Amino acid sequence: MTSTTSQPSETFRSDFPILSQEVNGHPLIYFDNAATTQKPRAVLDALMRYYERDNANVHRGIHTLSSRATEAFENARDKVCRYLGARSPNEIIFTRGTTEAVNLVANAWGGTFLKAGDVILLTEMEHHSNLVPWQLVAQRTGARLRFIPVTQSGELDLEKIDTLLNTEVKLMSLTHISNFLGTINPVKELCAKARLVGAVSMVDAAQSAGHMPLDVKEIGCDFLAFSGHKMCAPTGIGVLYGREEVLESTPPWQGGGEMILSVRYENSTYKGAPAKFEAGTPNIAGTIALGAAIDYIQTIGRESIRVHDEGLALSAFAKIANLPHYRPLGPSKSRGGLVSFVHDSIHPHDLTAFCDQKGLALRGGHHCNQPLMRKFGFPSTSRASFYLYNTEAEVDRMIDILEQANHFFK
Questions:
Q1: Would you list the domain boundaries of the chain?
Q2: Which residues are catalytic?
Q3: What is the CATH number of domain 10-39+302-409?
Q4: What is the rounded distance in angstroms from the CA atom of residue 111 to the CA atom of residue 97?
Q5: Cα-based angle 98, 104, 106 (whole degrees, multiple of 5)
Q6: Pairing assessment for the beta strands 326-328 and 268-270 based on DSSP bridges
Q7: Comparing C-alpha atoms, which of 92, 5, 7, 42 is closest to residue 295?
Q8: What kind of architecture, by CATH, is found in domain 45-298?
Q9: 243-302 tens-digit pLDDT
Q10: Short-list 208, 196, 159, 229, CA closest to 337
């Protein structure tokens, strides 16, 4: 890494090779970080080092390459454990990402402990990945879905929480930061309320794990999930944190190699967590690269990243609000590092295509939030999302391009 300063800024751009290119004749401005972040050289080097030097399967071999690969793989688990403030590496399960982590909990825990009449409490701002798996398990078990409403200002209507979160609720699962609105939800307070009524709690930290400090003991959740590719790591690697006592009582979801103690033709016995939830050959290279991404983020400091990302989001929100015909959405004060917005007459897909011609990468669509979009009356929105390598100058360039769009589309 080329810099050791504690403040995310343009200094870090040289650590990300992809950012040096031009797109359609313009310097690339990458504002699609909520979908996936770019990868620093340190992470790319970790991937290549594994494949060039240590490529072997983990845990099962006693030769040198396998031993080195296993050590690097389990070192990554230790890093994730410390990164989340977990009590033990046994509470860290590697998955393909947040989506698989939620499906694991829904199928393994939910399929075992939910029954007809039980309530699954979600919010109206959930990503499809934290909605559809619960719909499926509710259909199989007879459980019911219940939702914490979202106000027109884009925040949870917590005045209704005592009515919604009662002893009927067996599981509450909610996003930490909305990938559509940028809303930061009070997960610590809500997990405490869930615990009081005996409900298991899960936090979708896909938009927060790489952007702000997290401590699962402080939050008090039973499960927490995030995706590596949204925090400088490769795609196809993610994490499910599970409180050890809850994992012990949860059966495996998938069967196969590595997760067993003994196999007979008639039945099998299984290892404890995390092995019993990691059947088959894992994403070894991606896991090791996730460890490298954590090292990179820790060098910068997650609190510095939080301040930086929120600062860009608040600046972009205010500047978009001052543009004719544009309307930013979600909270105008404390928020995560993204801003969704709409135009009076330009469709988000047309606007995103126009911006791309200027080298600006935005996202236009429903952002896997169709029910909430429908509630607000939007088929889709445009979204700018920021990370540690983005700058205020890039925000100003985006505002200039959005003004140009007004003239182009008349």
A1: 10-39+302-409, 45-298
A2: 368
A3: 3.90.1150.10
A4: 20
A5: 105
A6: unpaired
A7: 42
A8: 3-Layer(aba) Sandwich (3.40)
A9: 999 999 999 999 999 999 999 999 999 999 999 999 999 999 999 999 999 999 999 999
A10: 208
